[in-house]
Amino acid sequence: MFRLQGSKVLAVDMTGDAVKAKNGSMVAYDGQMAFKKMTGGGEGLRGMVTRRLTGEQMTVMEVKGHGTCYFADRASEINLVSLNGDKLYVESSNLLATDAGLRTGTTFTGLRGASQGNGLFTTTVEGQGQAAIMSDGPAVVLRVGAQYPLSVDPGAYIAHQGNLRQSFQSGVTFRTFLGEGSGEAFQIRFEGEGLVYVQPSERNTIGGDV
Question: Cα separation of 21 and 27, whole Å?
Fold first, then answer.
């Protein structure tokens, strides 16, 4: 069972089951717990943590036992997402923990720009269960409807779910409108029906001034 202890700590109550979380994110636990480190590369959770775009490799851990385990990461805000057989697309750096029963992987979501041809990979989480995602500041959940497409700055994007089509618009960013853009830039455009999670702070991104 996932629950929030405040807005920046995830508490997971376990009765012999397991949870998978970002390595180093455990801050406390009570009861009896066993920990196993897992490394990126391959299928499932290992595929989730491979940052193929940058060559980075994150590590995750599996926690199993009886009691309550507490997770946090750099005082980030934590948001709980319940999945009922659907799929969540989330930046790997924003994924804190998942139920052990959820399937995770990596999917190619498009090209950042024709001139550079950089591929963009995103983590997928699917099945029945809960996931905890992080944001720099309180996340905002925006609904996309058939008549209401949504454009998002890539630095503010966290995750999305639902029946959404994702595309990239090169050569323009929100800063371009203010005359502050330079070099290659792009927006992420969502169409269809679903939810998009954004944070009120922009991370540094690769492949253009965004």
Answer: 12
Alpha carbons 1 and 68: distance in angstroms, whole number: 9
Which element (helix H / strand E) includes 189?
strand 186-198
Give Cβ neighbours of residue 124 (< 8 Å, ≥ 6 apart). Answer: 48, 87, 88, 89, 90, 104, 105, 106, 107
Tokens in use for 15? 């009765």
- Give the total number of structural domains in the chain: 1
Q: What is the pLDDT along the chain (210 residues), one digit of tens a residue?
A: 999 999 999 999 999 999 999 989 999 999 999 999 875 444 444 444 444 444 434 578 999 999 999 999 999 999 999 999 999 999 888 999 999 889 888 777 665 433 333 346 688 899 999 999 999 999 999 999 989 999 998 889 999 999 999 888 775 555 555 555 544 467 889 999 999 999 998 765 544 333
Residue 204 lies in a domain: no
Buried b (16+ CB within 10 A) or exposed e, 42-71: eeebbbbbbbbeeeeebebbebbbeebbeb
In this structure, is residue 67 part of a structural domain?
yes
